[in-house]
């Protein structure tokens, strides 16, 4: 499997940037993360996501949604809301969420 960024889409669309620092004990986090990935993938307006974590522990996930309605459906999903509560209570030392409209998008991929 080759590593690829999420492709460029026809703007406008939304991006939700979730930056976080996890707590030392993140027991259960990988299982819930896998479930959240299953749920969001069922959202017809979900375009994809990218995640990275620095060696120092800063995590950044950028999720892309076609429109505000798609993002609202994700935000209001009951399992997602329960995961957010668990995150605030146990898994995160801190986080920020930024939502923005993408006005321009293009990409490049080397052939071969």
TrEMBL record:
Q: Which UniProt keywords apply?
A: Monooxygenase, Oxidoreductase
Quote the Gene3D superfamilies the UniProt record gives.
Answer: 3.30.70.100
Q: Which InterPro entries match?
A: ABM_dom (IPR007138), Dimeric_a/b-barrel (IPR011008), Jasmonate_Hydroxylase-like (IPR052936)
ABM domain boundaries: 14-86
Keyword Oxidoreductase tagged = yes
User: A single Gene Ontology molecular function, please?
Assistant: monooxygenase activity
- Superkingdom: Bacteria
Protein name, please?
Antibiotic biosynthesis monooxygenase
The keyword Oxidoreductase is annotated on this UniProt entry? yes
């Amino acid at each position: 499997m080759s590593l690829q960024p999420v492709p460029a889409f026809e703007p406008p669309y939304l991006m939700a940037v979730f930056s976080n620092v996890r707590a030392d004990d993140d027991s259960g986090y990988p299982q819930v993360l896998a479930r959240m990935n299953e749920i969001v993938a069922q959202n017809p307006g979900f375009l994809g996501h990218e995640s990275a974590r620095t060696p120092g522990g800063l995590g950044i996930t950028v999720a892309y949604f076609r429109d505000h309605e798609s993002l609202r459906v994700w935000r209001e999903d009951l399992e997602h809301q329960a995961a957010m509560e668990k995150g605030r209570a146990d898994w995160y030392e801190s986080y920020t969420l930024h939502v923005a409209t993408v006005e321009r998008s293009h990409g490049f991929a080397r052939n071969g």
